[in-house]
Design brief:
By secondary structure, the chain is of the alpha/beta class. Helices cover 14% and strands 26% of the residues.
Length: 228
């Protein structure tokens, strides 16, 4: 591994844009970022890392993952293969499975607590704020948590380039601690899921879920109260 002095020299050298072609500059940046973050972490092959990435210790980022803008990882976080992560803060010892996508358009962010799990092929939307607590398990595949709706755009024939709140409204989603959500679920904008709750697989959650309750169905309704 190269000494710190070399990496600082490389960082300064990259900043001379007029002397280095943009394609080579991008390669050098990725090389520098890989060296920087791999000192205390395991980073796989073909990983793309944003310049503003902040990473704790003992994290694992698997092959083909893309770490986009405004990402902060705690300690011992694991990111699966080909996951696309952006605008997120992920707590200690949480696990983001392979092929998970964080996506959106807007000013929101995703915040995930400690010891939480996001399953295979799930989609998390940061168009508005999405808060996920500690010890939350969101099973895969194909659960989507959405903080925006484009229904009005479709019904009114609005262009995809028009993303104003008038026709593409957003609303935050909050999932409290100790919640289990099954695979193939859809969580709609504005929903608040209380602690110690269960969302059965194949459900569409359109309204708030009270703490200590199991819900399921399309739309989801209360199945029973959970006794601890």
């Amino acid at each position: 591994m190269y000494p710190i002095s070399f990496t600082k020299y490389l960082e300064k050298m990259i900043k001379f844009k007029k002397y280095i072609p943009s394609s080579l500059k991008a390669i050098l940046w990725q090389y520098f970022l890989y060296r920087k973050h791999s000192r205390n972490n395991s980073i796989g092959k073909h990983v793309v890392i944003s310049k503003d990435f902040i990473c704790g210790h003992n994290c694992k980022i698997s092959d083909g993952a893309v770490i986009g803008k405004e990402v902060v990882l705690g300690n011992s976080v694991e990111i699966g293969k080909r996951a696309l992560i952006s605008k997120a803060q992920i707590g200690n010892q949480s696990f983001i499975e392979s092929n998970v996508i964080f996506t959106g358009y807007g000013k929101g962010h995703i915040k995930i607590g400690n010891e939480s799990y996001i399953g295979l092929y799930n989609v998390l939307d940061w168009s508005s704020d999405l808060i996920i607590g500690n010890y939350v398990h969101i099973a895969g595949p194909s659960t989507g948590i959405w903080t925006h709706s484009s229904t009005k755009m479709c019904l009114n024939g609005i262009s995809l380039n028009e993303k104003s709140e008038l026709f593409r409204p957003t609303a935050p989603v909050h999932i409290e601690d100790n919640v289990w959500i099954g695979g193939n679920c859809t969580i709609y904008p504005g929903v608040h899921i209380g602690r110690h709750s269960i969302v059965s697989p194949n459900s569409a959650v359109t309204k708030d879920v009270q703490p200590y309750s199991m819900v399921g169905g399309v739309p989801a309704r209360v199945i029973k109260i959970i006794e601890m």
